[in-house]
Amino acid sequence: MHIFRSVIISIALILISSCTKQESRDQNLQAAYPESITLSARNPLDLPREDAVFTLAVEELTSKRADFNPEAFVVLLDSVEIASQGNDLDGDGQVDQVVCVGDLEPGAVKEVTVRYAVSGESQREYPRRTQAEISHKTGGQWEQRKYIGGSFENVSFLRVPDEHTDHSTFIRYEGPGWESDRVGYRFYLDWRNAIDIFGKKVTTMVLQDVGQDGFDSYHEMSDWGMDILKVGESLGIGSLGMWLGDRAERVAETDSITSAVVANGPVQAIIRTDYYGWNVGGRKYMLSSQLSISAGSRATRHDVTIEPVPENLCTGIVKHPDAQVLNYQNTQAEWAYLGTYGPQSLAGDELGMAIIYRVQDLIELTEDQHSLVATLRPRDGKLTYYFLAAWQMEPDGIRTEGEFTDYLGMLTRELDSPVEISP
Asked: 33-116 falls under which CATH superfamily?
């Protein structure tokens, strides 16, 4: 009896201590961020949503409270702090978007509270779950099309030098990279302009170390993972192109290219690349590509703008003889997918890849010698689609075709029924 009573007392003391600490944290938050805006988030699905992304426009927040300060805020979901960040999407030095991630139970409606200080800057620290980088050499010199000497340095903006081409050794892993705690991607910032996959065996950020121990060392398995896709002349995974009758033409010939890290926070990473004078099909285009990934997600969102407006743009997936093609489209739904699954990774194990596109944008599903292709119709010069990879070796990864199709079904349902934010 005495032992039982002691256990009860110990549990009670732990609970009291925990409550006291929580009250202290709440009081500290209120002191640091005394003002607040209250909204609600609703999950319209009968499915749980882990790491659901909430995006709040600063313009909407200031319409509710004119003194909202996007340089000093914190976001709570049902009174529990969730990870968030502010994004400056237009590069004017001002935060114009608040992005955060939280969990929602099936059909749940939760209170979203944005607390803020009316002046000053105060950024909360959260575990890093996304990353974006562009890393190129400095301190060396160009010898024809090769960069000799120097060391890698991360930059937020790069105009691609005229001398640069494939295997110039100028850009680490040959282009910009972005990752979540699930998967990493890169694209070749040269005439190839194709997207590749870094399969990850860990949930920590790895890009900062990739290619530091040799220009293409990432083609060999390491503790963090490896490059798992052979792109060749294909669209890789989700690369952008134009369908020219019988083939997909990647963004190859341009007048100049710039690329920038737009966001590099704990819950979202964004890279924007502008292609000036994309010469394809006998015309030149101004093309802007924005790639974004969020915490907990395998999917990259690709937002494209183009002038003048072409008849089509296309994207796709590299063909592999051992992969099963997966194609799902419901004309009653907004989003559909084209995918593949099978032993198609460079490690020889299971890999799923998919493109998720709007049904109304689809012109046709087709293929050429190298790729499975979705030709899509840009509307008013804009196009949005998603692409993703799921590797067998991920922690708690997808390991069967059935699991992969279930996962794609869940993603399309979530896109069809986004989280609803209301006053």
From this structure: Golgi alpha-mannosidase II (2.60.40.1180)
In degrees rounded to 5, what are phi and psi of residue 140? -110, -155
Q: Tens digit of pLDDT for each residue in 372-402? A: 999 999 999 999 999 999 999 999 999 999 9
Q: What share of the chain is helix, strand, coil (3-state, %, to 5)?
A: 15, 45, 40
Assigned token pair, 330? 């419901």
User: Residue 372 is encoded by which pair of tokens?
Assistant: 């499975």
Tell me, yes or no, if the pTM score tops 0.85: yes
Sorted by where each begins, the domain ranges of the chain are: 33-116, 130-422
Identify the CA nearest to 366 among candidates 302, 306, 315, 299.
315
**Residue 228, C-beta contacts closer than 8 angstroms, at least 6 positions apart:** 197, 198, 199, 345, 346, 347, 351, 389, 391
DSSP string, 114-177: EEE-SSS-B-------EEEEEEEEESSEEETTEEES-EEEEESEEEPPTT--TT-S-BGGGS-E
> How many residues are listed for the chain in this entry?
423
Residue that has been written with the tokens 């200031």 in this structure: 62
CATH number listed for the domain at residues 130-422 = 2.70.98
d(CA 219, CA 346): 8
To 10 degrees, the CA torsion angle through 237, 243, 247, 248?
Answer: -30
* Strands of the sheet with 80-82, listed across from one edge: 80-82, 73-77, 109-116, 35-42, 420-422
Helix (H, G, I), strand (E, B) or coil at 260: strand
Q: Are strands 313-318 and 324-328 parallel, antiparallel or unpaired?
A: unpaired
- What pLDDT, in 10s, does the model give residues 328-367? 998 889 999 999 999 999 999 999 999 999 999 999 999 9
